[in-house]
Amino acid sequence: MADAVTQTRDAGTGIARYAGKPIANCTNLELFNALLRMVRDAAQARGTNQGKKRLYYVSAEFLIGKLLSNNLINLGLYEQVRAELAAAGRSLAELEELESEPSLGNGGLGRLAACFLDSCATLGLPADGIGLAYHCGLFRQSFLGNKQCETPDGWLTWGQESWMRRASLHQTVSFGDFDVTSTLYDIDVTGYGSKCARLRLFDVDSADERLIKDGIAFDKRRVAQGLTLFLYPDDSDDEGRILRVYQEYFMCSNAAQLILAECEERGSNLRDLADYAAVQINDTHPSMIIPELIRLLVQRGIAFDEARGIVRDVCAYTNHTILAEALECWPKSFLQRVAPQIVPIIERLDADVRKSCKEPFVQIVDEHDNVHMANMDIHLSHSTNGVAALHTKILEDVELAPFRRLYPERFNNKTNGITFRRWCIACNPELAALVDRTIGDGWRHDATQLERLLEHEDDALLGELAAIKRRNKERFATWIERHQGAKVDPESVFDVQSKRLHEYKRQQLNLLWAIDAYLGIKAGKLPRRKVTVIFGAKAAPAYTIAKDVIHAILCLSQVVAADPVANKWLQIVMIENYNVTAAERLIPAADISEQISLASKEASGTGNMKFMLNGALTLGTMDGANVEIAGLVGADNIFTFGESSDEVIARYQRGDYDPMSYYQDDERIKAAVDFLLSHDMLAAGDGHSLDRLAHELMCKDWFMTFPDFDAYLAEKDRMLEAAEDEATWQSKCLVNIAKAGFFSSDRTIAEYNRDIWHLTPDAD
Ligand code: NBG
């Protein structure tokens, strides 16, 4: 690309050449398309990391975000392109607006997969992500009548300029009663100053978007047409659940066929497959790759027992949750219908386990003929890892303890990480530039160098940090007004909770805090400064209580906004259609990072790391990676509260938690919960939904909101008080930024490679 960007001014640099006319004469769309082609060529010119052994990271989700800026940064073209556009009176930021965000993921699990590919590319590791090209993604969220509505996220306009290149590969996947043909699309994943990795997405040729009728509803029995329309189609009925099994088998069979063909091409005789391939099974969605690989190896003449050993040496499994509901478990009859060819293999694997171990907990197939995917993963892989130290410890000591006794050497921890390219350099360029000026740019490749910031702490540096935060808040204010018409005050404290909507993450705890604060203001207890509580979250379409929480937040937002006194002190905003693009605006603007999951339930969290890196302080429970953040920054630089994971686990074991007694004994809890059914809330919303939520809290509260309520209120108050001492606050922010280096996904990936994959970096 170097020649393209150093061309003479008259002929234009690369951009004008790709556009076929001078920049000034182009529409924004023409410029965007030209840049896209130019970047694609530049990535191709860099080439893909090669090596005998290759990683195949198989995942149902890859939440990659927009790619233009990130690719320009990684290819070292960002500044040149920005300056060149600016010289012609054009703005790169405006072009970025045209790009639609690929809707290929849901939350942390998918974003982690994207960060990992960036780090693999950057570290020179030969690596491919393998997943599916969902036409309409997860869904697009809008708010109507204070409720979440779902519509297809048509991020893909087939035939138009796209990052996806159609590969020449076509494969057949055989289901029980029919076959389908798949097509492969590749997206180059640029590394920072290095060659590329690839994201390889399979689609089914028979997919038909016309099947979608009302919102995101479609006839789920039309498998061949519906297979790749959505990520996580509604699984509240058997048809939806079976469709997910079809999707998973489609992904796994395609991945397995591709892997074997590629490895053979690189010289493998398949018996030595482990020298050619490392397969990372990202949560349980790709688990069927195990029996599928065994099936294909046996088909190619390898004895079953040998094939089983080969697959075990190739595969490794990452667990991302301890919530039982997320550990997939499929009735054998579903598998029989979808992929009868792998059922005898699973039965044989199950029989093997039974021979050596009688314990019911570790069986692959249970007495009701349900197949436990995670159990199969653990038995048939050489590594099982959790994603933060506490999470791995809970897996080892509690949730998966019987497996740990069987295979102590297979368990390991890999604390999650984030790519600093996207989550600082791209989304917070002013902060990145300040860091460069202060300690040089070595941190861009070695994030631990951020610690050196601490040697430079003085009033000037803290003042600059404060000024950058202020400008980021102003930018966010401009963005959210354009995005959804909400006006927020950059002068206020930005108190942010953005993540999937789930009861264990406890958005409802934050909601109850906001109600309490509102009632306090009504009673004359004014905060020191206005607080803007910002939520970003999508609820799974079939998750009723999660949608009730969104409804209550939106109703409260309306009630507070309509109150002429309260609206001077408190504002509640929920970002519509929260996604990576919104996160990139929001996170650099945050003051408070809410990480308030019920201790023991959040495997890691990665938002917590992004906020920390961008100079927000954590208000959190000692859960997931929060524990490691606390260890790194020290007690003075984080705000923690709530019961410990040990206490919570003991409560579950005792089974004696009674939310009603908290409701009755604690006046503030009672007032906050009762307010859900107040006249004002009912006027703003739907009585059924609000009542269901209040009832759920009082009578069930499975994720124990009430026992942590008082401690949360007290710690948040302490934190809001601390926010008024600007210098001390910024000094805490500086410590958080300086200590964030540990959470670079480059570190995480280097550990995966050292302990699990053993790939050789491509040196040239
Ligand atoms: C999520 C966890 C997070 C974790 C990410 C990435 C799922 C199933 N799990 O705590 O909830 O940070 O995975 O590991 O989405």
TrEMBL record:
Gene3D superfamilies (alphabetical): Glycogen Phosphorylase B (3.40.50.2000)
PTM-bearing positions, type N6-(pyridoxal phosphate)lysine: 610
Reactions that this protein is recorded to catalyse: [(1->4)-alpha-D-glucosyl](n) + phosphate = [(1->4)-alpha-D-glucosyl](n-1) + alpha-D-glucose 1-phosphate
GO CC terms: cytoplasm
This protein's record includes keyword Magnesium: no
E.C. no: 2.4.1.1
Cofactor: pyridoxal 5'-phosphate
Keywords (A to Z) from UniProt: Allosteric enzyme, Carbohydrate metabolism, Cytoplasm, Glycosyltransferase, Pyridoxal phosphate, Transferase
Record keyword Nucleotide-binding present: no
Any one biological process term the GO annotation gives: glycogen catabolic process
Any one GO molecular function term: glycogen phosphorylase activity
Principal localisation: cytoplasm
Annotated localization: Cytoplasm
Function: Allosteric enzyme that catalyzes the rate-limiting step in glycogen catabolism, the phosphorolytic cleavage of glycogen to produce glucose-1-phosphate, and plays a central role in maintaining cellular and organismal glucose homeostasis.
The protein's name in its UniProt record: Alpha-1,4 glucan phosphorylase
Lineage of producing organism: Bacteria, Bacillati, Actinomycetota, Coriobacteriia, Coriobacteriales
